[in-house]
Amino acid sequence: MQKALLVGIIVSLISGLISVFVVLRQMSFIGAGISHAAFGGVAIGFFTGINPTITAIFYCIAVAIGIELVSRKGKVSEDVSIGIFFAASMALGIVLVSLSKKYNVDLYGYLFGNILAITDREVLLSLFVAVLVIGVIILFLKEIFLITYNEEIARVGGIPVRLINMLFLIALSVSIVISMKIVGIILISALLVIPGATAQLFAKNLYLMIVTSCGVAVLSTVLGLFFSYEFDIAPGGSIVLTATALFLTALLFKRRQ
Amino acid sequence: MKAIEIKNLIVKLDGREVLKDINLSLDEGRFIGIVGPNGGGKTTLLRAILGLIKTASGEIQIFGRPPEEVLKTGNIFGYLPQTLKIRQNFPVRVIDVVMMGRYGKIGRLRWPGEKDRRKAIECLSMMNVEELKDVPFGLLSGGQQQRASIARALAGEPKILILDEPSTSIDVVGQEDFYHLLKGLQKKFGITILMASHDIGAITTYVDEIACLNCIFHYHGNPLGALNETVLTGLYGKKVDLLLHTDICDKCERLRRE
User: Over its length of 257 residues, how does chain A's per-residue pLDDT go in tens digits?
Assistant: First the structure.
């Protein structure tokens, strides 16, 4: 349980930060798409015998770049390309899994989360990823923010927009994969949207939004894990329901204002 | 060295020629207005100059360098795009928006400092919106947003200011003040200003030169020369009724009496 809490907090800090930009850049569909595409990446890992987390990271990055490239060429709109990659990846995963039935138990863990099976190695991995992702985003915070505000003004200001957009997609993919063990593939996208959406209700500037979003994410995870322990319910669902409750409360509060 | 030098420019969008035979030579510190009908290529020309779009043929030089190179430096242009679709709940205050204009100057991997903040506030007060600095940007009126956006464009200390239809969200009175302000900036800092507008009447009083654009330049030169039936009919493709206001205008006489 302690490891789950530790990894949970680390992962929710990452999610909280990324969520701000997913919400501001209106990327919740891309987030959902990449999250579910991770299933394909995990299945490849099972099939080939390579660590599923590693294969998932590379697979998600490939999907993210694929979506970018396909929609940039202009022939297909972005939401269509997301829909296609999303579905195709899941289909790939289903086919690969059907080819070898013995991995079903592990699979369940990846789909719905498996906090009890978190190894020390995974704790270190999540810490490493946190430093990397949070570090990169903080380093390019003003650039990412300006691109979010208006891409052309950012380009005129000398910012390498395509590069930074790509960097963000990679950071997004990595954070998605790292969250798999806590909430499961099916629910990861919730952590990419709810904290940021809650923060946006009240935030007057970017820093406040980031702090609030991380706060919501961490609180949801800690409370969610606590409830799951107390009432013996699925931790992934518990965390996301807690986050949803926080969002609805915030919404109510905002209406009253 | 000319601020902007364009030779035989052709720009195509989706295979269609949007700009053809464009030649322009603009000295530093000049204020030029580009007028013409919607769809005539004004925005396209501005974006080609900025380096945001690829050109089919011809040459553009900004202080002797091609636009792609200038784009990398980020400190020559200040840009006001035509429409700024900002969601109302985007977490920016006015001061944050103006600070964004400094990012190109601050450079990669560095945080904005006190000097940047002071410059941002200076630009805000130049545009008479300093007291709004902590207000969420989305809550400002169209005119106020426009002024704050100009402050943003100026904050990076640009050599060339590119404004695309800057007066769309400002009322007529506001527009006069606005052009006045631009003229003041030009005089004070020697900035080169390129402004695209479909409002031919108002800007002729303020600009040094005018170019009439509808796929090609139908005219380029002294502002008053543009207010000419042949030029305007060629530009807009239709018969144009020109209303010129003078001191003995009888319509105004009627309004004054009432």
Answer: 788 888 899 999 999 999 999 999 999 999 999 999 999 999 998 888 888 888 999 999 999 888 888 877 777 888 888 899 999 999 999 898 888 765 566 788 888 888 877 888 888 988 999 999 999 999 999 999 999 999 999 999 989 998 999 999 999 999 999 988 888 998 999 999 999 999 999 988 899 999 999 999 999 999 999 999 999 998 899 999 999 999 999 999 988 87
Using an 8 Å CB-CB cutoff, list chain A residues near B112: 142
Strand B209-214 relative to strand B216-221, pairing: antiparallel
- Prediction pTM value: 0.88
ipTM: 0.85
Q: B-contacting residues of A 139-158, CB under 8 Å?
A: 139-140, 142-143, 145-146, 149-150, 152-153, 155-158
Q: A207 vs chain B: nearest CA distance in angstroms?
A: 9
Least CB–CB distance from A204: residue in B74, B93, B112: B93
- Alpha-carbon A212 to chain mean position: 17
Residue found by looking up tokens 């961490």 in the block: A218
A204·B106 Cβ contact <8 A: no
- Which residues of chain A are within 8 Å of residue B47 when distances are taken between CB atoms? 152
Phi/psi region, residue A7 (left: phi>0; alpha: psi -120 to 50; beta: rest), is alpha
Residues making up chain B, counted from first to last = 258
Find the DSSP H helices in chain A.
2-24, 28-48, 52-72, 78-98, 104-112, 120-139, 141-149, 151-156, 161-178, 180-183, 188-202, 206-231, 235-256
Whether residues B91 and A159 touch (CB distance < 8 A) is answered with no
